[in-house]
Amino acid sequence: MRLHSIMSLVFAVSLLSAPAALASPTVTVLDSFNPAVGQLPESVTTDDAGNLYFSMSLALNELTIDKQLVTVAPIPAPAGASALGVKVGPDGFVYVVTAAFGGTTPSAFVWRVSPAKQVGLFATLPAESIPNDLVFDDDRNLYVTDSALGQIWKIDPQGNPTVWFADPLLLGNSTNSVVPGRPLGANGIAFGLFERALYVSNTDYGRIVRIRVHHGRPQGIEVVATSDQLIGADGIAFDIFGTLYVAVNAGDRIGTVSPFGTVSTFIEGSPLDAPSSVAFGTRRSDRFTLYMTNFAILRASGLKPGTPEPSLASVPVPFPGLPLER
Predict the structure, then answer these.
(1) Contacting residues for 298 by C-beta, under 8 A, at least 6 apart
(2) d(Cα 29, Cα 311) in Å, to the nearest integer?
(3) Where are the domains of the chain?
(4) 68-112 pLDDT tens trace
């Protein structure tokens, strides 16, 4: 973790204004979208200035700090692909992964969008891959979960991918998947403090695993938590005290996993609708805010009853988030 990130962490811990507890936090819908035209927001992240970036409709979108909603750039992936995970890189570019959940057209790519809104292809993965979420390390390497192949890709700053780690614990459930006929394993990904471990959610099994890291190399995998409350686990993010927030799309829920592996429900129910991604605010004014995308994919696809309500939303949290690497 770089010096400014450590200083940000220390500053956040020392804030005296941190609320002691939030009995019933209120979810605020920042923007609602139209599922009839494919507006289903999947992943959200933030830059150091507090702008929110999110993937939707094969495009990178932005909610600026002054609450203006803009389409930054279309992502030129083939028809049938979806834009999934997004992260701001250390170079100031926004990185976006795409994948297709069916068909044979190659769609497994990593794209990057420049501050000038120019889109370029950064890395190509095998056609059978479903790259889903991503995170950077101190050395500007990019780690990408593969929900189909049960592995983690490592992509160097030049865009060269290699399989960094693969394990059966990262595979989906072929006999009882959350999405029928499409096993989904490794999904959300986040570094713990000082990059000593990578944490990964497994969607089908409701599982959080920890892959220990030593000098950039994997040192084995262990299960941190498994729970029915986490089935459908998607994006994840840490607060500064090691509590992991988990977007549980199948449960219309944001769950938490304590540093000791205790699973709890933070919020659930409307207006949450298949939440798929979470990100902490980065500015002093919103450090105690957790942003989320309500993907609404299960209702939009008829897998769950009810009217889909996709949105970008926020909720107050007791403590700030662990700073991401830039």
Answers:
(1) 249, 250, 274, 304
(2) 7
(3) 3-316
(4) 999 999 999 998 899 999 999 999 999 999 999 876 678 999 999
Please list, in sequence order, all residues whose beta carbon lies within 8 angstroms of the beta carbon of residue 297, skipping any fewer than 6 positions away: 40, 249, 274, 276, 303, 308
CA distances from 28 to 68, 254, 271, 299, 313 (A): 16, 14, 9, 21, 5
Rounded Cα gap, residues 126 and 111, in angstroms: 15
Instruction: Tell me the per-residue pLDDT of 246-299, one tens digit each, with 9 for 90 and over.
Output: 999 999 999 999 999 999 999 999 999 999 999 999 999 999 999 999 999 999
Tokens of 300: 């939009």
Distances (CA, A) of 178 to 127, 189, 237: 22, 19, 21
Task: Dihedral sign for Cα 91, 122, 94, 294, please.
Answer: negative
What digits encode the pLDDT tens for the residues 48-64? 999 999 999 899 999 99
- How far apart (Å, rounded) are the C-alpha atoms in residues 79 and 15? 47
Q: By C-alpha distance, which of 320, 269, 250, 263 is closest to 291?
A: 320
Give residue 30's identity as a one-letter amino acid code.
L
Do you know the residue count of the chain? 326
Q: Which of 76, 81, 84 is nearest to 103 (CA)?
A: 81
| CA gap 129, 99 in Å, rounded | 7
- One of 3.40.50.2300, 2.120.10.30, 3.10.25.10, 3.30.930.10 is the CATH number of 3-316, namely 2.120.10.30
What pTM was estimated for this model as a whole? 0.93
